[in-house]
Amino acid sequence: MASAVHNYDASSITVLEGLEAVRKRPGMYIGSVSTRGLNHLIYEIVDNAVDEHLAGYCSLIRVTLEADGSATIEDNGRGIPVGMHEKGVSAERLVFTTLHAGGKFDNSAYKTSGGLHGVGSSVVNALSAYLTVKVKNGGFIYEDRYERGNPTIELADGLLPVIGKSRETGTAINFLPDDTIFDKTRFREEDVKSRLHETAYLNPELTIVFADKRKEELEVIEFHEPEGIVGFIKDMNKSKEAVHDIIYYCGESEGITVEAAFQYVNEFHENVLGFCNNIYNAEGGTHLTGFKATFTNIVNSYARELNILKDKDANFTGADVRNGMMAVISLKHPDPRFEGQTKTKLDNQDAAKVVGKITGDEIGRYFDRNLETLKNIIGCAEKAAKIRKTEEKAKTNMLTKQKFSFDSNGKLANCESKDAARCEIFIVEGDSAGGSAKTARNRNFQAILPIRGKILNVEKASIDKVLANAEIKTMINAFGCGFSEGYGNDFDITRLRYHKIIIMADADVDGAHISTLLLTLFYRFMPQLIFEGHVYIAMPPLYKAMPSKGAEEYLYDDKALDKYRKRHKGPFTLQRYKGLGEMDADQLWETTLNPETRMLKLVEIEDARMASEVTEMLMGTEVPPRKAFIYHHADDAELDI
């Protein structure tokens, strides 16, 4: 627990600029207006409450998904200051109506902070249909209300109205996302729960209570993890075969606190998660760079000292050394710098230096005392290096035998443009759909790659079988950026030939299965394609409505059909498309290929840990967990009847 710092009152709130741009460009502040951005609204408010915990004043946070679609976040911290600010209005009003207004800019209010930018509360307010704030502070309960960022309560002499008395302190915020801004306004509870659970692991003295009132039966879960990140690692590896006991260390230098835990398992991939001030950094950053570089150097040094690596042998690569590693690196930094408001990547150079120093000191000391664990870890690196060398030979043979070409016998039909930012490639199942797509496409910037049937399930297959699969080899060769960032060193996203990789499958169960197999391949062997926003799923229509009078209309799902039936007067003929091959070239261009009229789904990953676990569960060899997942989510399924 961070030590308590100085006064937190109206004078702690510092104003930098106004609020106007948020509703116009919400993606700049929350990443997107998809479900990912929607959930981010909750995280912004939770992060503020966690900052109160880090300052030593909050031990309980409640997050409730209300039956009306709104969310309530309540904490028992000090309560947002409600006193008169020097700007002539209540400090709370400034927090919710002005960008960069908050205690995060006053070093006496917070020692470390996740909500560094000070825009969280105001952004949530700007993007909500309504927002209500209740503050318990100084023996009273104060209330303020807003609609789409605008206050609806007249302040008497600039101060909030008192609605009651209380000996407790804290803040409760209830908000309803604005449906004119977000694509969907239903919070995804699994993502929210995962994020809250992570927060509990990172703060062992904090309790977080989650409640979902939208279901028939109230769901309430309490997250409290006194083991901290050691418990986090246990949870990550609960179904895996561990190579050694969990290694944990922590230290502080230059005002930066580093906490780390890791364990190797008998699996051929790594999962190293980085956090700064409780914020998950999906794209890593300098703290992970410092950890990885130092750890790789230490293992190579010991391997040579123990004569496991001979003079003629090359060092293990970083990927070799991290083969099988499951790790959590948590940093507390007084002045973190992130790339973007959503804080996906840490950018402080001092973080790399401090993490490297503490890791070098602590891991060196641990390995000196635990020689068998060290040998087991080096053994994992040896195994990875042997497999890597075998893969490199297989890849070289694959790429020399298969040419990147434009042909007409069912393989890649390339586009004319060489501008990767403009080019897109459609992966289409079947000769019939592939033939239609080749005819319908714009040859200047659209390439078509037909595949035959369902590709190999890479989650169950060995590396050599993956590399030997003809369809997978064709895709790797066409994309041009190499194969498997996690398994070798030749994956280079800058060589990607198409900035849009679009999966175009039939709108039925088989089509969904094909899409799932392709996404598993990309996630396990070319994850950067997804993380950097290059993978899409085409949305072909299910129906074509042809009225006796008026224009024909394509309908993309059953909900669209229901709406059409309600608003359309008069008879109409309905055509059901069972597959892409049933459309002629003009229809396929108009509905699925034309950038002006088509709909695409961008594939995103919000929670890397949960994504990995779900992929393993659904595509792996264990049947009982998959059955339980399907049963639990049966009501969410979209059935093709």
Descriptive labels:
alpha+beta, 641 residues, five-stranded mixed β-sheet, flat
Radius of gyration over alpha carbons? 27 Å
Q: What is the averaged pLDDT score? A: 83
> Helical element count?
19
First-residue to last-residue Cα separation:
55 Å
- Biggest sheet, open or closed, and with what strands and sense? 9 strands, mixed
- The overall strand count is 22
- Quote the beta fraction: 15-25%
Q: Give the overall silhouette.
A: flat
Helix-strand makeup class: alpha+beta
Provide the helix percentage. Answer: 25-40%
Uncertain regions: pLDDT < 50 for 5+ in a row? 103-109, 402-410, 485-489
What does it look like?
The structure is a single chain. The chain has 641 residues and is of the alpha+beta class. The protein contains 19 helices and 22 strands. α11 packs across α17. The relative contact order is 0.08. About 3% of the residues have low confidence.
Write the layout of secondary structure elements.
Elements: H1 27-30, H2 35-54, E1 60-65, E2 71-75, H3 91-97, H4 120-126, E3 128-137, E4 140-147, E5 150-151, E6 162-165, E7 170-177, H5 189-202, E8 207-212, E9 219-223, H6 229-236, E10 247-253, E11 256-264, E12 271-276, E13 279-280, H7 286-305, H8 318-321, E14 325-332, H9 349-369, H10 371-401, E15 424-429, H11 431-440, E16 446-451, H12 463-468, H13 470-479, E17 500-504, H14 509-525, H15 527-531, E18 535-538, E19 543-547, E20 553-555, H16 558-567, E21 572-576, H17 585-593, E22 600-602, H18 608-619, H19 623-632
Parallel strand pairs: 1-8, 12-14, 15-16, 15-17, 17-18
Antiparallel strand pairs: 1-2, 2-7, 3-4, 3-7, 4-5, 4-6, 8-9, 10-11, 11-14, 12-13, 18-22, 19-20, 19-21
